[in-house]
Structure formats: C-alpha cells, structure tokens
Amino acid sequence: MTEGLAVATIAVSKYGGPLHDLTHTVVRALGFHSSIGAAARFFYGDGAAHSGFFRDRRVDAAGDDEAIEAVHLVYFVGHGQMRGPIFSGPVAGNRDDQAPIASMRLGDRSLRYVVFDACEVLKSHEVFARWDFPVFAGARGVLGFSSLAAAGSTERGAIFAAYLNEGMTLRDAWRLACQETEASGRCWAMVRAEADDDDTLADVWARLPTAAALREPAALVYEEGGC
Amino acid sequence: MKFVKLTYGDRAVLPTKFERALHVLPGGGLESTSSPLVEFRRDPRCRALVSPGAEVSLASDGARVVARGHGSTLEFFHATRSLRWRRDGWIERALRHRGPGDAPPECDALAIACAFVGERNLLPSEAGVTTTAHSPRESSLTVKRIARDRAESSRVAARQFTWTFRYLGVSLRDPGAKVQVTVDAQGEVVEWLRFWHPLDRVTASATPAPMVDDLPQRVEEAFERALGGGGGLESTASPLDVTVEEADATYFLASPRVRQARIPFTVLLAGTLPHRASGQPLAFTRYLRAVGDELQLVDADAVLHP
Question: Is ipTM over 0.90?
Fold first, then answer.
C-alpha cells in the first residue's frame, strides 16, 4: 500500500552555537526512518541538512528545496522556535540557521506533510500570521508542537511511524505518539489545509493522495491539544 | 572563568527535606513471562471493558494489545499494564461540527470527568501515592480556522482533564504517570487513558536514596557544569543570570511502553537564561540527576524566545 511513497528524515543534533547540542535527536529520527513503510527513504544528518531545504527559491535566493519536494512526507527533528525550525552544522557554517516559515512554499511538487518534532514551530499565538495561505502550495498539513517539546525522547519517531503503518490518520498517529512521550503540560498541534471536495481530516499514510496537490485551499484549520 | 547566578522565583524553592521512607521507593522490574495477549485477558480492567463473547478484534504489536469493537478502541500497554481508550471517530466528528456554543461548560465537563474517574477507579491506589492537586490540570482541543476572505473563528471542541501524582510528597513526572479524561461537546467521555507504572509489584533496590543535605548547592554546581559542558551556553565575560521559575524534586516515569529498570530521582529546573550572543531570554527545562556522588544532566531543553 505504500508503493510510490517517499519520506525524508532530517536530524539536526550538533548546534555548536548558542543553542545546545541535542543528544537524542539521531536515535529518535532513526526510529522513524527505519520503521516507516515507504518505497524510498532518505536521511539527512548534520553534515547534509541546512535551512535551504525549507526555503523556496522564488521567495529566498538561498532556497534549495529539491530534497523535501521530492518526497511526500518530511520528518524533522531538532531545535525549533515559533518562526521556524533551526539548523546548524558544517553546511550552515556551524551557526544557528533558521528556516523562516515565511520563506516556505510547501507542496508545489510532491510534498504533502511535514512533521516538525521540535519546540514551538506551531505555537498558537497569531498562528495564521506565520502559517498563512502562501505557505500551503500543495501540502495538506503540518504537524508539530505549540509548546516546548522534550529533547530527551528517543522513542517518538518509531512510535509515530508504527501508528502510520497501522493505518491511523496522520493526526491521530502524531497526537497519540506525543501523548505517550510528553508530559501533560505539553501540547501537540497541527495546521491543515481544507477544501470543499477533499477531506484532509481522513488522511492516512498508505492512502495519501499524491497525484494532485491541494492548491489554493479554501481554509486553514489549526488544532491544538494537550499531551 | 564562568559564572552562573541562579535566582529563584516565588514558585521555585528547592526542597531540602524528604521523608526517610523515600529510599524504599519501589521501581522497575515488573516481572512477566506471559505474552501480551495472555496478560491482556488476565488484567481485571481489560476484562471489565471487554466482556466475554463480545465481537472484539484483538491485535498485538508486541508492546501493546489493541482491542477494537463497538465503535471504540482499547489499548493495553503490556510493559506497565497502562490503558488508553477512545471512541472511534470522535475527533473527526468534533472537528466537522462548526456550530456555536459547542463546547461543554467548563464546570460541567470537570464534574463529568471527576465522576468518570471515580466510577472507573482510575486513580492509583498504592500507599503513599496522592494526586498533585485537588483539581486536575485542564487543557482543551482548540480549533482555529481562517478562510480565504480572512474570516477567523476559534472554538473549544473538547475539554481534557489530567491528573498527575506524587509519591510521599515527591512528584511522579509523566508521561508515564498520568490519568486523562476527555469530554466532548455532548458531555460524553470520548477518550481516557491511565498511564501508570505499578509500584506495588516491584523491588525497591533499583532506586537509590536521594542525597539531599546540600541539594541546592549541588544543583547549582551541576547546572553550571551543564551550561559549560558542551551546551554552548557558557558566558565568557559576565555572569550568566538564570531565573528559575519552577523547581521540583521528581521521580521520572518514562513512556508506558517502557519497563524501567530504575526510576531516576531528579531535580527539575525550569526558567529562563540569556542567549550568549543576543541576550534574548532562552526558556529551558533541565532534569538534573539528584542521587549518587555526581549530579548529572540527564535531559535538557532550551529554545529561543523572541
């Protein structure tokens, strides 16, 4: 059922700048990478990942989104903040290197879902000022946290992948994986594109609509719940 | 030379006195040689929820047993005998419904959740275990929507109530120790979970006693080492001012899938510290191991705040 589906896992652990290194990132990311059912799987670690992955060249000259637009789902693990995920490592010149949400145009080719397993990328405060319509250029949804997230979880990636493989909706797979790995004060979140004739509420991994992009959605829906 | 100055806020007073009985906290080592399905059928809570002869499908992935039937799903986590139940499709129904006033009144939902927890006997009953507060922590499933014409709406689709626990006065830090009940707009309990590591089945030797005589000083030393030890947050010229907004002694209970060999006794510190380069406040949460000769950083989290 997962024929033709491709995923990319991005794990940033060495920051070396003001932000501290993350010791459990790679284990968590590998748990997802090795468990998810997909025809093609790509892994980008510290030596290969940079913020250009999430920048669209039409918006930002530093854009280099071939890697993420060639797959259907991206799982990012690293530091985050309400303006976007944070990279570092040698490709970024060993300094904090943020991919601003405003520079993203997700889904104009294959990409349908992005998961930011990082702090606050989906913070609820003025969420639609950051996650606005232009960002959804064909993508169906973005999953993440509205709160801080535990840096010490090693299992979340594998649990999330197992739930996707079981046939849960992407939302349920994410929120239940977060419930098992986060303290109750933390909050999972999701932004979803909504169209009259396309039910993104029911999206499951094995039957993900990949043929056509969901362009110009009628509405964006933000959901936030306690872990 | 590095400096760290810890300032404790009103809520952040490090505990310095503990019950002597703490050193016998049971932890880890839940022994079982049976298969998950056998354990599921033996568990009295599961037996009460899945009556004999009912049309229920059972599946196991090794870590948990999933029972589906009658429009609901029950998960049994074999390692800790934790449970999670949900009404199938409730969240989709709650999200599709866009009518006004569709959230249950706060007080009604709390009463429903408390009654449910009592009827099902979901709170742990081991000696020494208490809930952390008279009322559970409340959160909600919140939905915001923006249309192309920029019209925005926001509503609460369901209310969640979470109970957390203490053992002899010390917090049992979730995710492995929480009871949560979700009440939808119709006042129905649509989801509940009981994540718990059974403390009455295990031996005490794996969890050492906290050494607390000089805990505040030891925490400050450990925190300074954590900042300087590769964390990249060390200050080179001026003192690094850290404001501790929450301090608590905790036992850390991991995911309900994990059979913990020991339950680490830790000190939780949360607050803000200045970004080395920009001076912007960084939110942080640190768990510091609080037993043995050394305090060690066992988990760390920091994020830039604008």
Answer: yes
